Amino acid sequence: MGKRKYRAADVKDVRADGLLSQLADDRVVVGIDVAKRGMFAAVMDAAQRVHVIVRWLHPEETPRFVQYLEEVRGLGGIVEVVMEPSGVYGDALRHQVEQARFPVFRVNPKRTHDAAEVYDGTPSSHDAKSGAIVAKLHLDGASHPWSIGTERKRQLDAAVRRAGVFEKDHLRWRNRIEALTARHWPELTEILALETVTLQVLLETYGSPAAVAADEDAARQLMRKTGGAHLDSEKVERILRSAHTTLGLPPVEEERQWIQEAAREAQRCRQLARKAILRIEDLTKEEGSVHDLSGLIGKKTAAVVVATGGDPREYGSAEAYVKALGLNLRERSSGKSKGALHITKRGSGAARMMLYMATLRLIQADEVVHAWYIAKLARMGGDRKPLAVVAVMRKLAASLWHVAKGARFNARLLFDAARLRVPIRTAALPVAPDLPVEVELLRLEGT
Fold first, then answer.
1. Contact present, 296 and 402 (Cβ < 8 Å)
2. CB half-sphere exposure, 330, CA atoms < 13 A
3. Alpha carbons 312 and 335: distance in angstroms, whole number
4. What does the pLDDT look like over 96-155, one tens digit per residue?
5. Which helix (H) or strand (E) holds 35?
6. Buried b or exposed e, range 300-328, using 16+ CB within 10 angstroms
7. What's the whole-model pTM score?
8. Residue 344, SS3 per DSSP
């Protein structure tokens, strides 16, 4: 390898004059290593020869880099731009390149990492080399078109990200509430589940059992108003009694305010997550696949799965859709060592999370699915519940493709009901509605 193989030229000094005469043909592939500030681009021809490596500072010198690409195209070059996804750092550059009407392609970062030693015999990597590897992988056919996307797609992506962030934040605040009540009012969570609005509103309003006990009548009215028909009077009275007799450590004023703030934040994040989910439902309401899948996995889940994992009808087979969701299996083996099978997780994490929750509901609601899950769990030793759920989830994902194509879901087509000794009934049990993640995880423990 030559000492100066990866020597880069500043974008202010590079010129397009004479470049095309050095190329194997008129095709120019520009592989870009994306960074927050220092960007590198390898200019490669169809014979995979690097002719120049350009460096520049983003964003101030990015217009000059785009101008250089336009100069190459103006001389008759066919310019293709290839990038790695690097969070959001490359989005502004990608937007500018697209605005200049250059085709943009995407290369998986794992492919770039794996190709480092193959490229020049050295396992190490750096910015200039990464740009060259990205360009080579594109010429080898290992890239895909990568556009910014339509306005609607970007709206969906933003809504999904918001929902995911706020649901995670709600879970974190809920966990803080669990720790705080365990210290100061342990009896409360024995009566009300942590995720209930009544518990969170009660803690936000009072912050301590002593404050509830001192304002018993108003606290009773608040719980009845918040819980409504879903909260029976007996629970209300138990909560009030526990406020007088709790074994918890009485919180000082700062601790009481912290409990109130935690409950307030939990509710805020819950409401924002719900708002984002409703927005996803609104953006996907005209998609027939969401309507078709709603009866099986719930409207919210269907909206998120289609928004993040894609429309099942766009895939040629159920197996292709399962693979797109990252639920196909892979094995890592070497020599006589045979590794366990794992899902690839190459698809949307949000789609898998929502499908996991839908699978929990299906296990509870459908007797055939429940019987298969129990049998699978027994074969796995009885203590690997998440893996058994994933096994059911893979079958559910395959069935989504058929349902989106117009078929009616029938668990007996996925599982051998006769072998499981499940009696034939006239209709399948209904699938439970969408429920919070925390509720579903609790239900799994009681499966």
1. no
2. 8
3. 38
4. 999 999 999 999 888 888 888 777 777 777 888 999 999 999 999 999 998 888 888 888
5. none
6. bbbbbbbbbbbbbeebeebeebbbbbbbb
7. 0.73
8. coil
